[in-house]
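Re: that backbone. Tokens:
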């Protein structure tokens, strides 16, 4: 979360206004023609971890290589969080949408105009990635030992 706070303008304000935060510190993506990504993360409510999750996604098209990234999803409404938590296999784009926040002039975010119930951020080793989508990503609960 420290990187999120450092790289995203108004990140702390967005997080403070959220009812839940889903953090995947490392999602690994690899591909040779078909891409696959997977990672484990934790859902935090009021600063406490309440459940662990796994995410996976597949992509098609020319791709080769492997990379790691960090994904952070902010639940802005209780209704969106409750629907996510009640689902066995929640899929972005079907069960709900995760909006990727667009930055304004000077990389600023007008937090008063962020209206989407679920917003997400993706970082790679170079920093915040702007032109990505969460569409098709699947999430399900896991037991963490």
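Recovered sequence:
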């Amino acid at each position: 979360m420290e990187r999120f706070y450092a790289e995203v303008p108004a990140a702390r304000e967005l997080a403070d206004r959220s009812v839940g935060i889903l953090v995947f510190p490392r999602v690994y993506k690899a591909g040779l023609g078909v891409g696959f990504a997977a990672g484990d993360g934790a859902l935090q409510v009021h600063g406490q971890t309440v459940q662990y999750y796994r995410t996976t996604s597949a992509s098609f098209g020319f791709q080769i290589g492997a990379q790691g990234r960090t994904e952070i999803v902010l639940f802005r409404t209780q209704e969106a969080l409750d629907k996510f938590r009640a689902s066995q296999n929640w899929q972005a784009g079907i069960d709900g949408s995760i909006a990727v926040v667009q930055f304004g002039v000077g990389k600023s975010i007008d937090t008063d105009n962020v209206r989407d119930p679920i917003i997400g951020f993706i970082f790679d080793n170079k920093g915040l990635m702007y032109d990505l989508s969460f569409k098709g990503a699947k999430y399900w609960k896991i037991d963490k030992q």
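The mean pLDDT is 83. The helical segments are 2-7, 11-16, 78-86.
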